[in-house]
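Need tokens for this chain, all 397 residues.
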Amino acid sequence: MKKVLIASFDMEVGGVERSLISLLESFDYTKYNINLMLYRHQGEFMSMLPKEVNLVKEVAEYATFRRPISEIVKNKQYGIAVARILAKYIGLIAAKAKGFKELGLIPMQLGWKYTMPFLPKLDKEYDVAISYLWPHYFIADKVKGKKKIAWIHTDYSYLEIDNKMDYKMWDKFDWIVAVSEDCKRSFLSRYPQFSNKTIVVENITAVNFIKSMAEKDCSAEIRVDDKCTKLITVARLAYAKGIDDAVRACRKLVDDGYDIRWYVVGYGSEETAVRKLIEELKLEDRFIILGKKLNPYPYIRACDIYVQPSRYEGKAVTVTEAQVLEKPVLITRYSTANSQVRHEYDGIITDLGVEGLVLGVKKLLDNPELQIRLKKNTAKVNYNNSFEIEKLYKLLG
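Here are the structure tokens for all 397 residues:
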């Protein structure tokens, strides 16, 4: 039986974490001994881990990731605290000097680089060690694995990071797995040297689970009898997801006489800024943040149109989930969009930014027959792709 280690940060509510649950549920546990290393044993999805998975004991040093520096100091982990402080300020200066819009990614890279001396190695050796979420330094440098695999969930052509720093990390992996062909292409546009070891394994979509979970009641938050058109977005409140563009698009649509209510299921680092923007544009009754939800599917089912306003994506799990629930889908033209939606067949693709979102939503609202056609076409598509696990089995051996 192959001994496999999979590493990720935690099981907080998110698309990557949902895809990890689907992957874990798909394994053949008679052939693979799956061990899960979570840096923090935290998050609403912890209860959804399959019983066959061996959860590796939490390691204090790794549990510091995503914790505030003040808490790390309080726990007397002074070396890690100093490393994090240095990473934060040096990283911010570097990101600003390069004119980056996402200021948190280089500090995250440096956070790993500077804390590495304080992080212990795992004693056990594994047949295969998988790093499921970037940065992948833990599996690259602290785990003994006969074979090492790293996952890509995002569009690297837009990611504002230090490529040279990550090159050394990627070089330590035997295989690199991208979640879509476009995601693979964007990664190789930065790292063409790794073309011979980069393959595609799509996120596994649990169709029956999504449909059954969508039957739950959410009428206390989204009224089914609401006469206006209800839009829904499920995403982290982060720069990449373009929620600020969605708020501004909502204002223009309302001003142009469209009776809409736009709901967002999600949370994240930009929540305060997004709520402030909603207040400034006087959209409190039109653009509604529902917050973190363990089960987003009833909210998608209760709305009329699903919108993904992202600036960049690898392959948005929630878009496929909305298609499973037979919703008209609108996504922006991020570089991997064509791997997710066939334009005007099972969704529409609109230009990036506020104007693109406004025109795209208007196109759907002004053409009820287009909405009907998109719904019918999603009903024809079989989104069940459990066979994707076979690609991974070939890598595992």
